[in-house]
């Protein structure tokens, strides 16, 4: 008696218990001596009925009038009791399917998802936004609601590209065709569209431009647009619906002062500036495809190329009347450009001569600091016609250097235009450069070549790649024979036919001079032989050792130079075999003679063939102004005298020069 037994028991609560608000549990005890006895205990649960509602835009804009906005409405049981009779409503939208279907029963933590749509009206866009409210209710709770606001944003994008060009329409003048694309990227209608394009910032002075045409099939253009004082391309009356675009075509004529690049940007905007964008180069305002064209603003580049300007051409003459002092004159004419070009003339003092400074005759332009020893401005003249726009900054003789061991003449400045002018006397802006050299003793031929470096891309620098030695001007001086200087007879050019003739060893003083790869070709006679230089001594020209070569007679013009170049070859050689000129008398008027040298073909045409020329007729080798060839060989062998009685003389004039194959 008085003792007790204690037992532990557990029960797992169910959602139904919580929904009832309590749970009652009964325990029963029994023994051999007594009847059953029981006891009950009730546990009460605190009930909390709650729900939440959320609403979110599930579609993405931009939206125009008539477009649908899609929403997702979510009703969630956030309490600890089951909610029944759960329903959702959306008076401002069209409610779609709910999952689970409503009215729904939601256990704690469960949710119901409903779709809804709304069709945008013009009034919504005019207000700039649309707010929609969704409401939910259940048997256990009161109403709960959530709202979602969609904003309608104006967004404009513009791209600009070069459709064609630059295209040269005349010397120094180019046309550039632009296309401008304007697109409505926002979700509202854009009104009073405007595009501005200030070309004065793109093509600043001294570059000159004019607007050739402005057209559009989508917009109303501004007829007064000039790219300067009036930069507006449109009249401002046009609209773009959502997603709509339009294009503008602009043709600009440019006289560039440099090759560029010139950078251009157009600006698109609306009347109230609620939307604006700087142009993106190309045909896509939004190349990164992030939906925002305003973060793409690369300017459109216009480049007129590295050879915007053509090089001038030069004419060089030499006056040998003061022999051995030679007076050289060169005239450079800017004949294919309509603007001045920066240029530098380099004229190395030719081999076989030395520069002659003339005291008291300075050029008027200072020798630059740091010039090599011996540099002077005396004896050099650089002049332009009165009223010329040509300017000179350097005009002097530069003393000897490793590259120019005899020194050189330098002119540098700006060479004004003489469009289409080829005659020096008619060139109003030509630069005339004059200097003197002294021919060394025994020098009878002098070749002088000047080159010009030009700022072809107009960037103000003459030393860019491809701007050096872009044109040349050459002249040759050949000493006219003084009385007694040339032999009184043409050389004997053959041996007895069919008979071997013994010849003495060639003296060192009469060795022939190698002339590199210079050779003579006569296609009609199948002659192709190298040319060597034959020295002139007191006995004339000695040809015994020519063999199968062609000899250039010293004292006559160097082959391909201006003047009369005499070339000779055997009719029969010392072995009695036919020589290169065996058939020279068969040539005819108009046939070609080609001199190959320095990677070029100098093509001459026959103008006379004389088959019976007396040996003492040296008139055939007198000097000429143009480049002539005189081919000489023997004819009419006299066995009694062991000599040839006549000469064959073929004369040809230079017609053109071509690059070698």
Explain what the structure shows.
With 661 residues, the chain is mainly beta. It has an 8-stranded mixed β-barrel with strand order 32-33-36-37-40-41-39-38. A hairpin with a 2-residue loop joins strand 11 (156-170) and strand 12. The longest helix has 6 residues, at 15-20. The protein is elongated, with a radius of gyration of 50 Å. The N and C termini lie far apart (137 Å). The mean pLDDT is 91.
**Computed structural class:** mainly beta
Radius of gyration: 50 Å
Shape: elongated
Q: What is the typical, i.e. mean, pLDDT?
A: 91
Low-confidence stretches: none
**How many helices does DSSP assign?**
3
Overall number of strands:
41
Strand content: over 45%
Largest sheet: 8 strands, mixed, barrel
Gap from first CA to last CA = 137 Å
The largest sheet has its strands arranged as 32-33-36-37-40-41-39-38
Helical percentage = under 10%
